[in-house]
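Morning, I've got a small favour to ask if you have a moment. Here's the protein in full, and shout if anything looks odd to you:
***
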Amino acid sequence: MPTKQPSSPDEYKYVATEFGNIAYREAGSGPPAILVHGVLLNGHLWDRLIERLADVRRCIAIDILAHGATGAGSDQDLSFDAQAGMLAAFCTAMKFEKVDVVANDSGGGIAQIFAARHPEFIGSLALTDCDTHDNWPPKQAEPLHRLAKDGGLGAIGRRMLDDVAFARASFGPGFECPEQLSSEDFRTWLEPLFKSPASTRNLERFIASFDNRQTVAVEPLLRKLEAPTLIVWGTADAFFPVKWAYWLRGAIPGARKVVELEGAKLFLPWDRPAELASALRDFWQ
């Protein structure tokens, strides 16, 4: 298909799907690569990586349902299964025949379901530290899970927006240098989630829907996935130990290698964009 000319990575675009209008930003030219973020963040997680890949890929940073600029209905299914269905609908609406998928955190669990159920769309798959098989929700996230079920996230979100030190402490386990995160970073990620009671409730419903039966259920399909697969994992991730990178390599027939990033944590696309970009360039070649 024709390549896409570079555009501003800050400009939101929308595509209509059966799941609603899905927001995305894009930059670069070449084959399409869809970048899938996880909970509490949005497509801006990938900004530093996109800068390093825009010469070789049409990088499309999607906002998953109920995050960033992508909304959701008050009774809409927001589970991993639904989010994976949204990715398939997005590809159909964009008229993509094949895409390279790069994913992190809960976005990685969603991407596994998407790839397992819709292998026809997958040109390649790259997974960074993420929810895998029955290893989620992580124990460290249990307080967040309880707050979501009890409808208590609004106060926490507003405090993070008002108090950057509290936000850094809350997100700290996922980043190597949380002290370098700015108030603007947190506003970019969190304001869309806590802008209204409705958006906050959708976030709570998404978190409350976390259930690893969804990823366990697609294991037989994942074990048939022949698409070339790269796994890049931080060795210091407190949520998803590196052993799960090797579980994925053993489960996915198309998996070629595991790249370990020494000392990297969960949000390595933000912390280690140069190393991730280098691994992806080698992989795509």
Remarks:
- The CA atoms of residues 4 and 17 lie 21 Å apart.
- The first strand starts at residue 13 and ends at 17.
